[in-house]
Amino acid sequence: MKNICCFDLAVLLAKGDLNVRHAADSDPSLTVGEYFDMLSKFSDMTPDAIIALQKFAEINEEKKDWRNIEAIIPLLDDLGGSKYLTDLYALSNARGKGDSRLAALHAKAIIDDFERFSEQIISAKTDALPNGAPGEQASLKKLIQFLDDEEANRKMLVLAVDDSPDILTAVAAVLSKTYNVFKLPKPEMLENVLAQVTPDLFLLDYKMPGLNGFELIPIIRNFEKHKDTPIIFLTSERTMDHLSAAIALGACDFIVKPFQADMLCQKVAKHICRDAIHRVR
């Protein structure tokens, strides 16, 4: 069996719109290739289904095309997309009762999310499976276990932003035994860096020339995958005003410089969390 394309399963697991684990548990014999084939088929069918949903969202006398929606429901169920089935079934019931207004409400409720969901699947297309991953003939459950094991053995990543090379060197010296540490001396490069790496925690210098730590927070939060990633400020300021301002802007803690190694380790360990399988890396 040759599937149309490969998909980055870690991305789909991270998004949470597909319950891939449920699909694997429901059918232990389901192979990686079969699941990818279903994803490809789903991607091919969704444009017509979305057009049909758009027509149902309009209250008019135009004949509605239910076939393109009906065809995608069992496929969506097999893929593990149960979060979208409730509205689709509700739309089906309203249609069966001839209630065009209620059908339109259900169609409107799902259409934006459904378009985004389809885009997520398309964006997860890739050229090949990860190195060392089980092949297309292996069970989907085996690939999920491989990704889980790979994630469990991964060192979490701390991104430290400070214009002082000495501070960055000190941070790396303290943390590198436990974490991967990315040292960034130029805060203006942060956005470009975040397009390439996915930190599990940020250490931001409070005062820097150009962009300061406060100004970096909106850049970080603008990335969907970093809406909740913990941020700790490194600061020489000791006043409660600065602490309050840091927390208000989205930081979870702060460390006063010069810092003690034990304090740095404790605060990073307190706030860092391993959830990369549940968000896009």
Summarize the structure.
This protein is an alpha/beta fold and 281 residues long. The chain is built from 13 helices and seven strands.
Structural features, described:
With 281 residues, this protein is an alpha/beta fold. It is 52% helix and 10% strand. It is built from 13 helices and seven strands. It has helices spanning 9-15, 20-26, 32-56, 67-70, 72-79, 85-96, 100-123, 140-152, 165-175, 190-194, 213-221, 240-248, 261-271; strands at 6-7, 125-126, 157-161, 180-184, 201-205, 231-235, 253-256. The strands form two sheets. Strands 4-3-5-6-7 form a five-stranded parallel sheet, with helices on both faces. Strands 1-2 form a two-stranded antiparallel ribbon. Helix 3 (32-56) runs antiparallel to helix 7 (100-123). The chain is elongated. Residues 276-281 have low confidence and may be disordered.
Q: How much helix is in the residues?
A: 40-55%
What kind of sheet is the major sheet?
Answer: 5 strands, parallel
- Computed CA radius of gyration, to the nearest angstrom: 24 Å
State the total count of DSSP E strands: 7
Q: Helical element count?
A: 13
What distinguishing features does this structure have?
two-stranded antiparallel sheet; disordered C terminus; alpha/beta; 281 residues; 52% helix
Write the layout of secondary structure elements.
Elements: E1 6-7, H1 9-15, H2 20-26, H3 32-56, H4 67-70, H5 72-79, H6 85-96, H7 100-123, E2 125-126, H8 140-152, E3 157-161, H9 165-175, E4 180-184, H10 190-194, E5 201-205, H11 213-221, E6 231-235, H12 240-248, E7 253-256, H13 261-271
Parallel strand pairs: 3-4, 3-5, 5-6, 6-7
Antiparallel strand pairs: 1-2
Helix pairs in contact: 3-5, 3-7, 6-7
